[in-house]
Design goal:
The chain has three domains: 16-123, Beta-Lactamase (2-Layer Sandwich); 140-199; 208-361, Heat Shock Protein 90, CATH 3.30.565. It contains nine helices and 13 strands. The chain has helices at residues 16-21, 41-47, 51-54, 67-79, 125-171, 175-199, 212-226, 248-266, 330-340, and strands at residues 26-30, 36-39, 63-64, 83-92, 100-109, 116-123, 208-210, 231-236, 244-246, 273-287, 290-302, 344-350, 353-361.
């Protein structure tokens, strides 16, 4: 059947602004003073600002770290060039939302009262996160095999060391000397347990239907008991989270490792600080190559100094630590346990604000 022909006049009743508002790409127009004169719905949503409230104010006033974007805008105004920047990170000011990663295209437009700038904003946050998660999961597969091989090689001599100490203990004439063999045996046992924690449990998750807040409450009380004086442990739960199939013991251990890591980050950062245990629901989230309709985001936020820049790409790998007395096992084991439950741990960090997020699937895959 032939396609129906529509004359141009048949589309005349459409409002161009409505068409722009239907786009998922953000469209923004700035005047020569870089003040917004137009923004479609997607642009206002991406950057968490209102066009009506922003008129007459420079666009950069609504953003953290606006230097890179301002440099592009000013250059486009001065030269008349069409410019683009890929994967530019922008964080709205006075907004709790996470920073967005955007592809930005700036096109100068001659105007009646001076040159204007047309800005296109394409949100690549999800694409970048999927790529990062896939890379992390691939690396974890390699490190998991390496760690299990290393654990096997270490456990054998530890067993021999413990056995030799037990034999020596039987031959020692004085009870006071046996104290030293008990130290050897105790340390061998501790290192054996440490090696087993590196290797991680070999059993598959024993999932039962439960609410993630049961896990959070258990960990919350443990962290409160371990927190030193002056450190406040708080909770901020989303009561709407539904029940899900989860391995209680594995996820308690994972969340406890992340929480203890937050407490340790505060130990060398003055006499006060806070740790917040938070839950939120997120919809249509991809973990690796799998898209989930609903996930629980279980967050541990701390006010410590932040993750050092040189550790950020390897913080979940075994034996990587930023503390002189750290083992580098807590976050590695936590990531392993969460991935066994189909989830992943992500983080964002800056001084005085570090957030580790456990993403746990709650529903069917889409």
């Amino acid at each position: 059947m032939a396609a129906e022909y529509r004359s141009p006049s048949a589309l005349s009743h459409f409002d161009p602004a409505e068409l722009l508002d239907a786009l998922s790409t953000g469209i923004l127009m700035l005047d020569a003073q870089l003040c917004p004169v137009y923004a479609n719905v997607a642009a206002q949503d991406l950057l968490a600002f209102s066009l009506n409230m922003s008129r007459g104010r420079p666009f950069g006033d609504f953003l953290h770290e606006r230097g890179a974007l301002n440099a592009i805008l000013k250059r486009a105004l001065e030269t008349g060039e069409c410019l683009a920047d890929r994967e530019l990170t922008l964080k709205p000011l006075n907004s709790p939302r996470e920073p967005r990663t955007l592809d930005v295209t700036v096109t100068p437009l001659p105007g009646l009262t001076g040159r204007h700038l047309l800005i296109e904003l394409a949100d690549t946050t999800q694409r970048q996160r999927i790529s990062r998660d896939n890379d992390l999961l691939a690396r974890l597969d390699g490190s998991r095999l390496m760690i299990r091989q290393l654990a096997h090689e270490i456990k054998n001599p530890l067993g021999g060391l413990r056995g030799a100490a037990q034999l020596l203990e039987r031959e020692l004439p004085a009870a006071s000397l046996r104290e030293y063999t008990q130290v050897i045996i105790g340390e061998a046992d501790r290192l054996t347990a440490l090696v087993e924690s590196i290797a991680g449990p070999s059993r598959p998750p024993a999932k039962t239907l439960m609410n993630v807040h049961e896990i959070c409450e258990h960990v919350y009380h443990l962290l409160r008991a371990e927190a030193r004086t002056g450190v406040l442990v708080e909770r901020d739960y989303d009561p709407s989270l539904p029940n899900a199939m989860l391995d209680r013991h594995q996820l308690i251990q994972a969340l406890l490792n992340v929480g203890r890591n937050a407490l340790q980050a505060l130990s060398s950062h003055g006499d006060s600080g806070h740790v917040v245990l938070r839950t939120r629901a997120r919809s249509n989230v991809s973990i690796g190559s799998t898209r989930h309709r609903l996930v629980a985001a279980v967050q541990v936020e701390d006010s410590g100094p932040g993750v050092p820049e040189h550790l950020r790409s390897s913080i979940f790998y075994p034996l990587v630590t930023g503390r002189a007395n750290g083992t580098g096992l807590g976050l590695a084991v936590a990531q392993e346990l969460v991935t066994r439950n189909g989830g992943i741990i992500e983080f964002e960090s800056e001084p005085r604000h570090t957030v580790f997020t456990l993403l746990l699937p709650l529903g069917d895959e889409s």
